[in-house]
Amino acid sequence: MNLKDQKGTITCKAAICWEPDKPLTVEEIQVEPPSVSEVRVKMLCASICHSDIIALQGFPLALYPRVVGHEGFGVIESVGEGVEGLKEGDTIIPAVIGECKECPNCKTGKTNMCYKFPLNFTGLMLDQTTRMSIKGQKIYHMFTCSTFSEYTVLNSNLVVKVNQAIDPWHASFLSCGFSTGFGAVWKEAKIEQGSSVAIFGLGGVGVGAVAGARSLKAGRIIGIDLNEYKKSKAEFFGLTDFINPNKLNGKSIADKVREMTDGLGVDYSFECTGVESLLNEALDATKTGSGVTVFTGAVVQKHVPILYWTLMAGKTIKGCLMGGVRPHSDLPQLCTKCINKEFDLDGMLTHQVDLNEINHAFELLKQPECLKVVVNMG
User: Fold this and answer.
1) CB 329 within 8 A of CB 160
2) Are residues 131 and 21 both part of a single domain?
3) Are 117 and 214 in a shared domain?
4) Does the keyword Oxidoreductase belong to this entry (predicted)?
5) Are residues 141 and 197 in the same domain?
6) What value does the CA radius of gyration of the chain take, rounded to a whole number of Å?
7) Which of 23, 155, 158, 263 is 20 to 30 A from 125 in CA distance terms?
8) In this structure, what CATH number is given to the domain that contains residue 255?
9) What share of the chain is helix, strand, coil (3-state, %, to 5)?
10) Residue 295: CB atoms within 10 Å
11) Parallel, antiparallel, or unpaired: how do β-strands 38-47 and 71-79 relate?
């Protein structure tokens, strides 16, 4: 039962990580009312992303106790002072970065790298405090989101109001993973009609990249994954060819891609796994003189060697966060596409669990038939 005291603090359940590589515990925590420019959200569902896994392991900062989770869908329960354009009852998705529309980057419209609301690794709100605690001990947030809690507090700029017509699960997928892949193709690479594309990794991000490539009418969409099950899932979103690296008999992935493209390589490649060894494969798989490689995956290593002469062959590497998608300018467009069935996110959902089964959800992700897990918050 969720209880609100006279000061407006809510007692509710959340999944807490107390130390790395240990099971989460579902316990009652206290969530304070929203402060200035903040909203408190009742989470309806959340989904799990690779970034949650590495955050539990202490990347990039070992902050404990902590409530992770950054994909989700919810309803605004209360609004703090100074919040504009949002009200109680609005349906929203969280965003890991903001869009102030005033800083130099936001004004150009060329990037989603907002100076005022960058990706936050501190585990704290913008005023360097936390809105969550357990028995008087502070709890760190994740990107100021913490969606694995029945209630959470976010800065209002990190909240995107979405049409109530959208399916809650679909909205959760759009809040990070799928949008990152789709955006990498749409906003960062801006691929041309008829382009050839290679996508390394067919998880939530990779499937988003497949859907983005089909939306922009790519001529050939090659997916690379060790999991044969992902092939049929990605074909649902527009995949035309599939490579399983375990079946190449010693041949490199890049060599196989060139073999499939008249010896040239692809116009664009998208690295969606965060596996360091695949970064150079993705680069090597593109065309000499014009190939573009976009890195989307969260790589734990701070320094990754790049094959210099491969890069000097006139190729381009581009990194991105959230696929270059701007939360307030672009995410609503993706939500509209979803509602209009321009892509069907039912094809991503493979498992559902309740909050008290959160550890089982992370185990499910290790199964070959698992693509996305939704955590129903009740």
Assistant:
1) no
2) yes
3) no
4) yes
5) no
6) 21
7) 23
8) 3.40.50.720
9) 30, 25, 45
10) 24
11) antiparallel
Q: Which two tokens stand for residue 140?
A: 């760190």
d(CA 115, CA 50): 25
Q: pTM of the full predicted structure?
A: 0.96
267 occurs within a structural domain: yes
CA dist., res. 106 & res. 251, Å (int): 44
Give the residue among 50, 68, 95 at the shortest CA–CA distance from 325: 95
How confident is the model over 224-254, as pLDDT tens digits? 999 999 999 999 999 999 999 999 999 999 9
* Cα distance between residue 152 and residue 37, in whole Å: 14
Quick one: tokens of 307?
A: 């094959």
Same domain, 145 and 222: no
Residue 368's domain comprises 3-175+348-376
Q: In whole angstroms, what is the distance from residue 225 CA to residue 200 CA?
A: 7
Domain co-membership, 129 together with 198: no
pLDDT digits (tens, 9 = 90+) for 180-207: 999 999 999 999 999 999 999 999 999 9
Are residues 188 and 117 both part of a single domain?
no
Give me the number of domains the chain comprises.
2
Residue pair 138/130 in contact (Cβ under 8 Å)? The answer is yes
User: Which of these, 122, 142, 124, lies nearest to 53 by C-alpha position?
Assistant: 142
Q: Two tokens at 270?
A: 């998208």
The helix-helix angle for 276-284 and 253-260 (nearest 10°) equals 30
- Residue 301 and residue 240 in one domain: yes
Asked if residue 89 lies in contact with residue 112, where contact means CB atoms within 8 angstroms, the answer is no
Q: Is the Cβ–Cβ distance between 244 and 226 less than 8 Å? A: yes
Same domain, 97 and 238: no
Any idea what DSSP says for residue 366?
T
